Give the backbone structure.
Amino acid sequence: MSKKKIATVWLGGCSGCHMSLLDIDERILDVAKLADIVKCPIVDGKELPEVDIVLVEGSVTSDEHLREILHIRKQAKALVALGDCAVTSNITGMRNYFDLKEVFDTAYVNAVSNDKEGSVPDHPELLKLRDKVVPLQEVVKVDFVIPGCPPDADTIFYVLFEFLNDRIPNLSEVKKLRYG
Amino acid sequence: MKNNSLPTDVEPAKTDPRIKLITAKIKKENYKPDALIEILHTAQNAYGYLPMNVLKFITKALHLPPSRVYSTVTFYHFFSLKSKGEHTCLVCTGTACYVKGAQLILNEIEKQFSLKPGQVSADNKLGVSVARCIGACGLAPAVVLDEEVHAKVSSEEIVNSINAKIAV
Amino acid sequence: MNRQDLQTIIYAEKAKEQNNKYKHKLCVCCGAGCISSGSEEVLKKLQEEVVTRGLESEVEVIATGCMGPCNQGPLIKFLPEYTIYQKVDCSNIKDIIQRQLIEKKPIEDLLLFADSRPKPFIDAQEDPYYKKQMKIALKNCGHINPERIEDYLVHDGYQALDKVLFQMSPEEVIAEIKQSRMRGRGGAGYPTGLKWESVYKYVSPQKYVICNGDEGDPGAFMDRSVLEGNPHRVLEGMSIAAYAVGATKGFAYIRGEYPLAIKRFELAIKQAKKLGVLGNNILGTEFSFDVEVRIGAGAFVCGEETALIASIEGKRGTPRPRPPFPAESGLWGKPTLINNVETFAGISPIINNGGEWYSDIGTPKSAGTKVFALAGKINYSGLIEVPMGTTLREIVFDIGGGIQGGGEFKAAQTGGPSGGCIPAEHLDVKMDYESLTSLGSIMGSGGLIVMDQSSDMVDVARYFMEFCMDESCGKCVPCRVGTKMMHDLLQKICEEKGTRIDLERLEELAVYVRECSLCGLGSSAPNPLLSTLRHFRHEYENRILE
Amino acid sequence: MPKISVTIDDKKLDVDVGKTILEVCKENGIEILTMCHLKGLTDVGACRLCLVEIEGVNKLLSACTTKIAANMIIRTKTEKIKRYQRITSELFFAERNHVCSVCVANGKCDLQKLGYKTEMNHIRYPYLFPECNVDTSHPWYVLDHNRCIMCTRCVRACGEVEGAHNWNVMNRGYQVRIISDFDTPWGESVTCTSCGKCVHACPTGAIWPKAIVQGQLEKKPEIIGELVEKRKMNL
């Protein structure tokens, strides 16, 4: 059996889910036996090749994220939403109660730390934020979700290991369903 | 209470004829708490809306918990906690009126007076609201301008009538 | 007043009517529709004109309730000729009086439907509009002055109450109603007799009768017209019900949007009390019954019986789960009978003519007649009453005069926001409870909105969902959040931003809200959506992003 | 007490008359999901989680408000009911702003537990993201509308048990909100006795005491029922 290819991606999130992923510790060797990690924020790799499984952390907050997730969907056989931000928009979604302009003004114009010239940065190289933050399933088909903020390492390992052994994981059955 | 200084907290004058009207109604209903809605109707008719101090007056008179009165007032569309304006324009958006262009009338009113349903102009001259059905479906679209039903109206006609009203 | 006194008055009034010095009766429609078109002015001018011409000894001018075709108003009717003039305004009053009463040559151009019929009928009863109708609940609406109890007495008013009080036991009254096979006209169609019987069976020192006049469906104004046109009929029905179930106190809950109906009903109560047909010891018997008016404050959900009860108790109008039904525990926890205005209006004819007479009208499962409020893209909108089982085609084309502007019939929405759409291929459906339900719609209270090809069915579904969302009381989750979600999804589809997944979610939610909601408002809220999905699915599909 | 026989989930049971289906199920160890029910308070049947199928009845009935009757055949865990319970749970989450990761009730929340029990791994419906206030005006307690599910347990605990009637519900439809007095800040309430019953009655992180940090919330909703029982005994 040829080795599977795994990738992990970091969209609008705090990278906590990736930290949790690192917490699988030595079990990474079990994963490595079955798969190659071809792209990950923590390893090098600029392009996303076609992969079997991709774990996506974070929600879709900008146009760039949208472009990226659509590309990911094309390249991946199984797309796994990793963590509450990817599943429910979680903390990143907390700006959705306000107008985007209000959010910018609060951060760049009215914040106490700003001097009088505080203004909203505007540069073509910068990300264009979307009006509302949405979880992954609002824009692409998601094959599996791992909620949790962050999901614990055991859960992440369980899901990866099941997928790598061509089994469909079930979080409820193993009592690993958790939010927050 | 903290904000006793606010004008809404000033007790309504006992000599106000409208308060007398409400007091009479409360007496007629025997101070029964279940007559709350009837009494609110009387107050709403007398004031055109339900000022907070009047609400507090009723609450006290009926010995009801404030939250009970406030929850009832906010449940029913008839009761308003804000002044509706000197002149009121009520656009019926019942099905028959909707099918016959009530939305166009609302759009035109918004264009001409910059008022959306539920809003009152800055000078308090005009208030715009919508009704779910005034039961004049044969006359669709219908608009009620200060109690007067304007039947089968066009948006221009109603704008003209409003202008005539608020010009006075 | 006792029984003899009432009979004396009735005889006197009837004698007055028979020895009537008047040759003509001129009825001016003062239903809410015609008043908005200016009929009160017309009434005044007509009275003046009659006096000016010295005809006051020959012509009696009276204000009546609704005559039916509201969009042709103001309407005036000459009796006994039954000649109806439409769109009367102050400028043509002189001519009408001159030609109709002096020259005896009616002005054909001004007759009812003159602008749409090749030749209008001088006797309007010959017109298919009236010919296809059968008036029971609306009988006398449009002939009598609703503000005079004497007018009602002349037309067998309070005879049914007299009959039940002196000749029938409560059990017999209930048996008669059961035999009539009448079903509640409020929408659900529960057999009226069974409802009465269940209230009757509960033993309690205090029971209540409530008349549900909180007609909230947009596009429905049957109850309004009955209350405005013949309030005593409803009052009599309530009294008979109270006698049958053993209640002594009644409430009429009338929408705040109907000030005229409230005014006339309150007047009717006053007159009835004065005459002794309401109040303590009615007609000298042991039976006492008093009625109070409660004014609705603008909440559609208060049409639901448990919410209506909460509202009469002066609370937020939120429904509570049934069972227990109001028959067992209703107003202030006491056994309570709640019927619709139109149901009560149908009671006295049943008592007068017998249950069998009523059960012979209509279809085997749905007896009697039903009042419909025709509106939308139809030529003659207004109020009609037809036997159950009349086809939709007859209603729209024979009575309603077809589609406005010669357009094409696309669908009819029955039952308002709780009902559904009936597409053109089902134009021959018989209008009765079962047939409408089988098409995914409901009879409802009787609103009937006709739509032509310009109507966008997805938008219609969105419109009704918005209504239900705004009117949801917010107590239970399926209705509170479900209607909002469905509305947002429909909005998305209307804006052509929806996907196939959205449509799937929408359908799943619709079934969920229907099955899980606490009350009838919630469980029927998805009906317009489900029925348009059933009959006009392609209109949704066309807007879906692939 | 006279007994009647009923069948619940294919189990034949002899039960006391006059009880609700929910009470009978609890006594017999049959789990029924609830949110708005709290022992000691009047049941309102608002959360629709306890809906059960009863043979011969064409609609689902709420177990908390329906009295058990002889020969009822009740099913509490059919596929349909489970599906509906999951949707209800999703709608709860989508309605307000439930961000578990930053919520004081995280890990101690009945709504979270409901999600696990209904196997809700994500929410299929778009979040509504309503604007909600947090009322911190009371010296000891906080009311956070973001976490409120409108179960009205606080309203009933305050009205029925404490008798203060500080809480009620304003507006209608999806705009309903819990209010104190005339929608005045809780700290300025003239009716609140600061008894704390609402805090214990609240199943989520909507009402909580200020003196705690995240994850340390300990609520004892059962004290409401115990209190009511004790009062009955004293009478």
Remarks:
- Residues 20 and 67 of chain D are 4 Å apart (CA to CA).
- The radius of gyration of chain D is 19 Å.
- Chain D has two domains: 3-77, 83-221.
- Chain D has six helices and ten strands.
